[in-house]
Amino acid sequence: MSKELIRLVNCSMAFDDELVLDNINLYINDSEFLTLLGPSGCGKTTTLRIIGGFTTPTAGEVLFDGVRINDVPPHLRQVNTVFQRYALFPHLNVFDNVAFGLRIPKAEESGETKGRKKKKVKIPESEIKERVMEMLEVVSLKGFEHRHITELSGGQQQRVAIARALVNRPKVLLLDEPLGALDLRLRKDMQNELKRIQQQMGITFIYVTHDQEEALAMSDTIVVMDQGKIQQIGRPEDIYNEPKNAFVADFIGESNILDGIMHEDYVVEFFNRKFRCLDKGFAPMEPVDVVIRPEDIDIVPEDEGQLKGTVTAVTFKGVHYDTIVDFKGFKWLIQTTEFHPVGQTIGIVLNPDDIHIMHKSQYSGMFGDYSSYSEEYDEMDDVTLLDEEDDEEDRDHEE
Question: Cβ(118)–Cβ(109) under 8 Å?
Answer without folding.
Answer: yes
